[in-house]
Every structure is written in structure tokens, then in C-alpha cells.
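Per-record layout

source: Acetoanaerobium sticklandii
name: L-fuculose phosphate aldolase
length: 212
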Amino acid sequence: MMEYEKEQVVRYGKKLIDRRLTTGSGGNISVYNREQNLVAISPSGLDYYETTPEDIVILDIDGNLVEGKNRPSSEAGMHLAFYKNRADVSGIVHTHSKFATAIACMGWELPAVHYLIGMAGHRVKCTGYATYGSDELAKKALETIGDSNAVLLANHGLIALGEDVDRAFSTAEHLEFVSEVYYLTKTLGTPNILSDENMDEVMKKFGTFRYR
């Protein structure tokens, strides 16, 4: 069941480690097959390089276990909330990447210090704090993200959405770069932030433009 989606979760889990977007078994990945109404999600607590397609958990959109011997990621509820409420999303990547997490630990939003933020939106907002894996965190993330493709989770990390997992991963990776640039520019002085009008043009080119 869902062999292609399982293989994608395994593949992108390894890329999380390779691209230094998390450590250990931190973060999580899911892929939603809208035709089957099923979600393939990474298991809880397994090393990404030891995870096989047989370890991936299959849930229905209400969170019921359909297939798998492992516990699903502790953030399964947050993934499902996005899939239920965002018809444009079929892949989700949650990272504990260093610079994005640092911004989240400050409780700051990530502004348009570099045009590549346009993969997510005009800015990336930050939720209020809630315990990992909780319904409260899922609710805060959904309320905060709006129609953006990413949101910072206070004192926790980043979650990125995409029309597929490749797009979600690319967004997460580019936002880590933007977060590092923001960190560096803050150490130099006051960053020059692009205007909404500047970002409108960027997002039209990216194909991510949405009217504010």
C-alpha cells in the first residue's frame, strides 16, 4: 500500500540529515495521496538512515491507523490538520534546522530579507509556544500560517508545505538559507527588508503569488 509515497518519505528523511535540516530522529515528513485519502508519515523515534519503506506508517485523514507496525510521528495531528484545511497541500516537511529554529526560539517572524522567502510567502510568521505533538500546537500552526507555505513553531522548528513533498522540502531548505542570512544581517546591523510590492513581483515569477 502506498509504496511510492513510502519511498518518498524514506528518501526525504535521509535528505533531512544530509542537508543538516535536523539531527537524530528530529522532524518528520508526510505525503498525502488525495485520491486514496491516505497519508504516509515517518514513524516516531527511528533513525532516518535505518528507516525502510516497511517502517512508514499509513493513516487515514482522520488519523486512524491503516497500515504499519510503528507509532506515527508525534506531529501527525498537525500534518493531518493541514491536509484537511489546505487543498493545495500534498507534502509536508517539518525540520529542526539550526537557523530557522533560532529565529523561532526568539519568537520572531522571518521577514523578506532575501527574495527566496517568496517560496513561502511575503514573510514566515511564528506561532505562540505549545508543547510538541499537542492539539494546541496543531491549532496554533494552522491559525498562524494563513495562506503561506511555511510557519515557524516557537521554541521548536519550522514546518513547510507543498503541492508535493519535493516542493515542501525545497521550501524548507531555502528558508533555512534565508534564516541564516537574517541571522547574519542582524549581527551586522539593521537588515534591509524587501517591500510587499517587491515580493509580489518575486512571487509572481515563482508562481506562488496570492493576493493579500
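summary: The domain at 3-206 is CATH 3.40.225.10 (L-fuculose-1-phosphate Aldolase). The two ends are 40 Å apart (CA to CA).
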